[in-house]
Amino acid sequence: xxxxxxxxxxxxxxxxxxxxxxxxxxxxxxxxxxxxxxxxxxxxxx
Length: 46
Prior knowledge:
Elements: H1 11-14, H2 28-37
């Protein structure tokens, strides 16, 4: 699995960087991938 948060600038986004979930930063590419795969987007707004 790709760790897309390992290089995040935000300390908040770095917290789950080692989590086995397929995390993405909010970006047009993330939403396009969700559309392509027909999966929901879950947002963390902490």
